[in-house]
Amino acid sequence: MDHRAVTLVEINFDGLVGPSHNYAGLSLGNLAAARNAGATSYPREAALQGIAKMRSNMARGLVQGFFVPLPRPDTQWLEALATDSNTDPALVAGAWSASSMWTANAATVSPAPDTADGRCHLTVANLVTMPHRSHEWHDTLAQLQLAFADPQHFAVHGPVPPCFGDEGAANHMRLAPAHHAPGLEVFVYGLRGGPFPARQHEQASRAVARRHGLDPERVLFIEQNPEAIAAGAFHNDVVAVANENVLFTHELAFADPQRAYDLIRMGCPGAQVVEVPAKRVSLADAISSYLFNAQLLTPPSGDPGSGVGAGMTLVVPEECRENVAVWGWLGEMLAGNGPIRHVETVDVRQSMANGGGPACLRLRVVADPATVDPRFLLSDARADLLERVVSRHWPEQIDTSDIGDTALAAQLVTARGALLEALDLTVLT
Q1: Positive or negative CA dihedral for 330, 334, 339, 345?
Q2: pLDDT at position 306, please?
Q3: Which of 128, 143, 257, 296 is 20 to 30 A away from residue 104, measured at CA?
Q4: Catalytic residue among 167, 185, 244, 319
Q5: CB of 195 within 8 A of CB of 230?
Q6: H or E element that contains 283
Q7: What is the mean pLDDT of residues 163-172?
């Protein structure tokens, strides 16, 4: 084995929930966002919940990173739209959106073992399908270029042209014997979704695979099930998640599931598919509980084959415990002999109410932590720092009627400024 490979680990980069976190209901096809449109949000609580989730990953022995919120309100976007007092409130709300917290949509990532030049490649997502997210990529790209600035180990790409919608890692999976080994990259695209748009275009996925220098023999392009999109699975990670050699998926995640499984097993020998039958957990229950929008992890002490504590851990939102069908099925799974041996719950209710579970909140990057800008890596001390800044500067609550208020806008700018100063990241101002 290449001695350099053992330094490669999976780093989860979570998006710190921004101070403008609100429930404006801007995301068509996201049932939770629509259901909670107009509700009062609690940005401080949301950010603290996210930090607690990051702390729990560190407690498992995992390397944890984070990204900072983007500047909000985005005044440049509002100026480009020539907004005034008669402007559609949805456009104003789009400039206030804290949706960058869901870093699974920040970029698509191909680790060094998969690429032709032996570097980790990241392509920032264009997010053109939803107006409130379409203006994120400029600031997200700047953050990626700073965090992964080492040109010997990383290549950070701009977005795919906006004629093809790209929503990042939320529609991308990787299966491999281990994180540091060469893997099979699976791109999931949509063609149709009933009343809702298919957000990931096939040509966007193919463009990302080409620019990352992936071996065509180790890449799959699989269609998402239109029924899943129509049911509210606006991204594939709402109905499927992969980790190392395990795919955890709903029966109705893919347009042709059996063909998808066969291709995955051929491309990644030894791959295991854990399929949840629709007759046991309906699409409605899977989507409302975000059973699959979970973090499927291999803790260092739980590496398959390591003996005591072996097996993967599935980190699900608390909502899974509250759903009888979902919790019952998880109990039966644990009673068996499958690869997922532990289920843990996490409270991310503020994010869930806007349609984002544990998996939405993180971008997975396989890399040597020593090659990443240390300002973006979490430690207990840095988590303490984040909590202090959030507790002091984040608004306690935001009503949708507050969106556009000049005093609140000033508070949001001050809050983010305090965070950047505390983290020595004022270059991102």
Answers
A1: positive
A2: 38
A3: 257
A4: 167
A5: yes
A6: helix 283-289
A7: 98
Dihedral of the alpha carbons of 165, 170, 172, 174, in degrees to the nearest 10: 170
Of the candidates 143, 151, 152, 225, the residue with the CA atom closest to the CA atom of residue 192 = 225
Q: Are strands 120-124 and 63-67 parallel, antiparallel or unpaired?
A: unpaired
What percent of the chain has a predicted confidence (pLDDT) above 90?
Answer: 92
360 catalytic, yes or no? yes
Angle at 293 between CA 5 and CA 394, to 5 degrees: 95
Q: Over the Cα atoms of the chain, what is R_g?
A: 20
Alpha helices in 101-232 (DSSP H): 131-134, 137-147, 202-211, 226-230
Domain that holds residue 176: 3-428
**Is the bond leading into 162 cis (omega within 30 degrees of zero)?**
no
> CB-based contacts of 236: which residues, under 8 Å, 6+ apart?
170, 171, 173, 188, 200, 224, 253
State the alpha helices, DSSP H only, in 98-188.
131-134, 137-147
Here the tokens at position 225 are 């099930």
Q: Would you say residue 362 has pLDDT above 60? A: yes
What's the number of domains the chain is made of? 1
- Give phi and psi for 122, each to the nearest 5: -130, 130
What rounded mean pLDDT belongs to the chain? Answer: 95
Q: Is the pLDDT of residue 303 over 60?
A: no
pLDDT digits (tens, 9 = 90+) for 20-58: 999 999 998 889 899 999 999 999 999 999 999 999 999
pLDDT tens-digit map of 115-132? 999 999 999 999 999 999
Q: How far is CA 214 from the centre of its chain?
A: 22
* Pairing outcome for strands 154-157 and 272-276: unpaired
Instruction: Report yes or no on whether pTM surpasses 0.85.
Output: yes
Determine the Cα–Cα distance for residues 56 and 78; give it in Å rounded to an integer.
38
Any long-range contacts for 368-373 (C-beta under 8 Å, 24+ apart)?
A: 368/4, 368/7, 368/8, 368/9, 368/153, 369/9, 369/11, 369/63, 370/7, 371/148, 371/150, 371/152, 371/153, 371/154, 372/11, 372/65, 372/147, 372/148, 372/150, 373/146, 373/147, 373/148, 373/149
- Annotated catalytic residue: which of 201, 235, 250, 393? 235
SS3 (DSSP) at 10: strand
Residue 235 falls in the annotated catalytic set: yes
> What mean pLDDT do residues 291-315 have?
76
